[in-house]
Design goal:
Oligomer: single chain
Strand content: under 5%
Helix content: 55-70%
Number of strands: 0
Number of helices: 4
Structural class: mainly alpha
Radius of gyration: 17 Å
Distance between the termini: 48 Å
Length: 75
């Protein structure tokens, strides 16, 4: 899979696995499903795929972008 990914970015099996796990948690919010999918036996290990601070930053950036767009459209 990593070889099939054609991009200037480096890709490894670890990055693919981590991206899958992160996206799974972000979209479904189910830590137990993540544990099953990745073979973890501990919620502590599975929690490494969640980053609440990063999620807050994404939501804030999105809201600021929307406010900026709305402001520019008023002119």
């Amino acid at each position: 899979m990593a070889k099939a990914f054609k991009s200037n970015k480096s890709m490894s099996p670890h990055k693919l696995r981590h991206t899958y796990g992160t996206n799974l948690v972000e979209q479904l919010g189910d830590i137990h499903l993540l544990m099953t999918q990745l073979g973890h036996t501990s919620t502590t290990t599975a929690a490494l795929y969640t980053n609440p601070e990063q999620e807050k930053a994404k939501k804030t950036a999105k809201l600021l972008g929307e406010r900026r767009t709305n402001y520019l459209e008023k002119d």
